[in-house]
Each structure stands twice: as C-alpha cells, then as structure tokens.
Amino acid sequence: MTQSPHDEPTASSPEELREQVEQTRAELGETVGALAARTDVKARAREKVATVKEQAAAKADELKEKTTDLAHQAQGKATDLAHQAQEKATDLTHQAQEKATDLAHQAQDKVPDPLKDKTARAVGQARAETGRLWREKTPEPVRHTTARAVRTARDNRGPLLAAAGVAVVTWLVCRRRKG
Length: 179
Prior knowledge:
Residues 1-31, 52-144 are annotated as: Disordered. This is DUF3618 domain-containing protein. It comes from Streptomyces litmocidini. InterPro entries: DUF3618. This protein has 179 residues and is mostly helical. The protein has 2 domains: 13-71, no CATH class; 112-179, no CATH class. Helices cover 89% and strands 0% of the residues. It has 5 helices and no strands. α2 packs across α5. The model has no long low-confidence stretch (mean pLDDT 84).
C-alpha cells in the first residue's frame, strides 16, 4: 500500500470499487508475506545454512581438484628426479670403470719386466698345482656344478662387470658419506 486512501480517486461504479478493493488486498497480502518472511528466523537460518553448505561443497571440490593437480605434479617431478639419479649413477659407474682400468694399466706399466716374467711363471705353476689338487680332492658333482657356474659367468661378463662397478660405486659413495 503505497498511497494513502485519501489520494485515490473514488470509484464511479461498484464494479470499480470491487477491483480497487481486490488490488489493495493483493498488495496488502504481498506486504504481509514479505514482512513474515523477514521475521521468520528459522526459515532465514535454513536458507543461510543451505547457502553455506553449497559454498563449502564448491570449495571442497575446488580444493580436491587442486590437491589432485599438485599430486600429479609431484609425481612427475619425482619421476624426473628418479631418472636423473639413474643417469647420474650410470655415469658414475662408467667413470669408476674407466678409472679402475686406468689404474690397472698404470700399475702394470710400473712393474719391471723381469718381475712380470717371474710372476707369470709363478702364476702358471700355481694354476697347475691348483688344478691338480682340484681334480684329486674335489668330488665330481662339485666340479661339475662349479664348471657350469664358470661357464655362466664367462657367458655373462657384461652384466657381472656392470654389477661389480655398481657395487664399487656404492661402496665409494657410502665411504664418502661416512668420512
């Protein structure tokens, strides 16, 4: 009801008067409904709770998505770091193998020729004696199994050397960390 009743023109017929009364009743009903909604604390609280729940659910979905993205990023970084570590270990293994080979050659170059000859003869005699004792003292099944193991080792020299290189590098790294 926005106008006072005195401002309104009077109706010229009873039909017009009924329409004005109906219109006033409708306006009054809307006003009362709006006032009732404002004073209904429980209904307003329920609306507020529903709004907060919707906002919380939306925020939870957003955080879940962010967490998933961060987890994927962390997994990718971890994979990259693992590959880098593996490449570094391979490089260090190759370097250690090269260094060991160089040191062996340097040691061989420093040994005098007469000593090399004497050592070669001693090694040959030791091999012959070891072979004789091996054949005389070792049971046949043990010799057979050992021969198979030796053949397998000779056939797989590359992997065995790589494993030995990794073991040496691991030992050196552990020794470096302790010292």
